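Whether sequence alone determines local backbone shape is best considered at the level of individual chains. In the encoding step, the backbone of a single protein was reduced to a row of integers, each denoting a local shape. For completeness, the protein is quoted in full, as a sequence line and a line of structure tokens.
***
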Amino acid sequence: MFLRSHVVTAAMAVVGLLAMISSGTTSHASGPTKPAFRLAIHGGAGAIARNKMTPELEAKYRADLERALRTGHAVLKNGGTSLDAVVATIEVLEDSPLFNAGKGAVFTHDGRNELDASIMDGSNLKAGAIAGVHHVKNPIALARLVMDKSIHVMLTGDGAEQFAREQGVKLVDAKYFYTDQRWKALQDTIREEEAAKKAGKGHAHIVHLAEDEDHKFGTVGCVALDRSGNLAAGTSTGGLTNKRYGRVGDSPIIGAGTYANNRTCAVSATGTGEFFIRSVVGHDISALMEYKGLSVADAANEVVMKKLVEMGGDGGVIAMDHDGNVAMPFNTEGMYRGWIDADGTVTVEIYK
């Protein structure tokens, strides 16, 4: 009897181990192996092909992505909140001319830069967002102030900048956002638009999600889990090259480009914003987890690899659940992305 009970116990342990492996919950599962904190980022998704990327340019992207990850990691390691980490991380990417956010923002048809950003606190579902600002160096920081210092969720345009001044946010001259690469992309797009009109294609209005030769979306985002188990997400973008009429995409829209809920996950998206808005991507992933019990990986794949594809939308997301499991599905050739564990181990990837 004694021998039989030990055999049964051992068999049950083996079955349990196999079940954990098959479900994908190993080092990032809840319990004693749950990470103390974790952070993940994206820098845009699109047709990012190896043969269009020089070694020098790839090294620059990887360096900025790693610098952003280490910045956020330092905040979390020193006891900062997931919100603090998200802001600090995204500010690094906003300050880089490589990404379509902050310094590297693309130009509208009128030759201006219109910046959007949002942030959400998974512990209480509070959120802040700004859209269509022209002089805010770090839009993600202003989005945080909207959440913390106002009764509103979203502020736009001149009103958002008035609020920024009242909060002591330093505004920059529009020249700060100028880069030769983005200006050239606008001129090329306008010429393409004029050629389409001359070819009899009607009143063609061409916008480019692919704002440079790599055909990428440069929107940046971050999701984080802190030592207290709280999730947060943030997203920042310059929108579309040659956009008109004050167009706003999914990045500043809570539930579309950004969402965080401690009960489920934190999500930041990048891609064709109109499709992400119509699909309510961020909230949809959370809802699949909450109402159907899907894992973060299965929920994110369901939305990005199936629902969006069926609608004709392309792009990707980064999503993290309350146990620190990370999913990064994208239906394009590549997505600038990375994550860092509590021990400081950094992983940066670009291609599929």
